[in-house]
Design a protein that fits this description.
The complex is a heterodimer of chains A (168) and B (386). Chain A is mostly helical and 168 residues long. Chain A is 71% helix and 0% strand. Chain A is built from six helices and no strands. Chain B has one domain. Chain B is globular and about 60 Å long. Classes of the chains: A mainly alpha (168), B mainly alpha (386). Chains A and B meet through helix 2 and helix 3 of A and helix 6, helix 7 and helix 8 of B.
């Protein structure tokens, strides 16, 4: 991780993530913003790889890029005025928005500075999928099960909403 | 009724009896020559190379296989597809350029290179240009984790021997759906947009059973790493007895067939090619594309075909393990064999309707694959003494 090439790639990816995330927020073309979000998510997956979280990186790409964003784009393209290429978003409430995000940013910076992260410098942490799996169905099985029940409820709710009622 | 049955039978038998098709498989096999040659060289030289460089050598051999695929597979696969199509329809197919039309695809490639590079006036220029690139990147990046074989000293010959191999495969192939959406939207053409929407719905749906069937394999082998999945299939009766497809009969056989069906759907091949259904949508998401950009979508499609075939071969058919010991050639034979099956199906089966396509996925493939996973996980659990 100390090599120059690794550092250079890190900074390039970081710049890409920042630039695309900024475009998502500031850009006015909705579809372009959605595709910029793809780049941002992908860059975050690269960060996971740098942190040795290989499974998390794969899951990030699979779930966010492959699942959520595809559905998001699907939604954007199904909205009104589908024959117009330029779906635009306006800028509203610039001052409150800037204030809120600035406060969150300050809070994050403060937390990063205040917490002792106990930096781990053990080199390659090795494959993470097996310990992760053991933790998920071991120590954290309750949280895991609750999350799956929640997803099941969401699934059933979605099926309920789109179903055709007989008689109407 | 009888004549109709005979027709169907003839359509099914056509590609099997046609001699040129057998020759074609042999020609496709020669594409495997590059990685096999690289493997032999690395076997012979492994004692002379210092240990520090060994990893570099295995990566280089992996890259050789990769390049062999990238450069030659689409050209011959397109030729082979036209031959299969022709023989199914009782024609000859390309015959003029080279022996049995072997150089036809080279000629077509050169033609596509020299075509005018058109971008429609009202298209979204950025997305229109980026979509073919994303398509080809997602198709070829996934090959990085496809291993070609294991050297006698145990080193895996692959561009990247990831321990999350199959997860990487599922994740990267999902980018393909995005490229199709991007092309469909960027073209600013209603047929392209419908094609893109259909493709997105289809790929997102079929990703789920694909991931579950990958889990089916993972649950039995206990690893996400592809070389380890193959290693678990070594040995057994005639060297093929321990292939996953023959274990827990018929669960894994069903799993393999379902995985292959999902592979067809994810690569938008007939009978799942509604995103480019020419009878309804002109050419679907690539209606507006011409020249090299169009060629890129084609290259991506043929790359994806081989990718899912090789993954199916690696996960269920023992990869490079077989009756004659382990040999990368075996992997290529299995992979290309499945590609030929894909082509055979394309020219035999009619196209599904959109609703049928979704029904197949959500009402049949997903429940069956969940059931398979449940049974296999239960058997494994009982075996492990839970």
């Amino acid at each position: 991780m100390e090599s120059m090439a690794a550092q250079a790639i890190f900074y390039v990816v970081a710049a890409l993530v920042l630039a695309s995330a900024l475009y998502v927020v500031l850009g006015s073309n909705l579809v372009h913003a959605a595709f910029a979000l793809v780049a941002a998510f992908f860059g975050v997956a690269v960060f996971y790889v740098y942190l040795g979280a290989d499974f998390l990186a794969g899951a990030q790409v699979l779930i966010y890029v492959g699942g959520i964003l595809t559905l998001l784009l699907f939604g954007v393209m199904l909205t009104n005025r589908i024959y117009d290429l330029k779906i635009r978003t306006g800028k509203v409430q610039v001052l409150p928005g800037a204030l809120a995000s600035g406060l969150v940013f300050a809070l994050l910076i403060w937390i990063i500075g205040a917490v002792d992260w106990g930096a781990m410098d053990t080199g390659d942490p090795g494959p993470s999928s097996e310990p992760l799996g053991r933790l998920l169905v071991g120590d954290y099985v309750l949280a895991f099960e609750i999350a799956s029940v929640l997803l099941l409820i969401a699934l059933m709710g979605a099926a309920m909403l789109v179903r055709r009622r007989s008689g109407s | 009724m009888i004549t109709r049955f005979r027709q169907v039978e003839m359509r099914l038998m056509g590609p099997l009896t046609a001699i040129p098709i057998v020759l074609a498989v042999a020609v496709l096999g020669t594409i495997a020559a590059l990685p096999v040659l690289a493997m032999v060289i690395s076997e012979l030289t492994q004692d002379f190379i210092p240990p520090g460089l060994q990893h570099l050598v295995t990566v280089a051999v992996g890259c050789a296989g990769f390049i062999g695929i990238l450069a030659l597979n689409p050209i011959y696969a397109i030729w082979l597809e036209r031959k299969v199509a022709a023989h199914v329809q009782d024609r000859l197919g390309p015959m003029r350029v080279g022996w049995h039309g072997l150089l036809q695809s080279f000629a077509d490639g050169i033609k596509l290179l020299f075509k005018e590079d058109l971008v429609p006036k009202n298209a979204d220029p950025v997305l229109f240009r980026a979509a073919p690139m994303l398509a080809i990147v997602s198709a070829f990046a996934a090959f990085a984790i496809v291993p070609w074989g294991v050297r006698s000293d145990g080193a895996v010959l692959a561009v990247a021997d990831l321990n999350i191999g199959v997860l990487y495969f599922v994740a990267i192939t999902s980018l393909g759906a995005l490229s199709v959406l991007m092309a469909g939207w960027g073209s600013n053409n209603k047929y392209a947009l419908y094609g893109g929407m259909r493709a997105a719905a289809q790929m997102v749906s079929y990703e789920i059973p694909t991931a579950i069937l990958v889990l089916l394999v993972v649950a039995q082998v206990g690893t996400l790493s592809i070389p380890e999945i193959v290693a678990a299939q070594e040995g057994g009766f005639l060297g093929i007895g321990d292939w996953l497809i023959f274990q827990m009969f018929p669960l894994n056989l069903i799993g393999f067939v379902l995985f292959f069906i999902c592979g067809l759907a994810e690569t938008n091949r007939t009978p799942f090619d509604i995103p480019e259904a020419e009878s309804e949508l002109v050419a679907g998401f690539h209606t507006e594309y011409s020249g090299m950009r169009f060629a890129f979508f084609f290259l991506a499609e043929y790359g994806n075909m081989l990718l899912v075939s090789m993954l199916a071969a690696l996960m269920f058919l023992g990869g490079w393990v077989g009756p004659f010991g382990s040999n990368p050639l075996l992997l290529f034979v299995k992979g290309f064999g499945l590609v030929v099956v894909q082509m055979w199906l394309r020219w035999t089966l009619p196209r599904l309707r959109v609703d049928q396509l979704m029904a197949v996925c959500w009402k049949y493939v997903i429940p069956i694959s969940f059931f398979l996973l449940l049974v296999v996980a239960g058997v494994r659990g009982v075996g492990a003494g839970w």
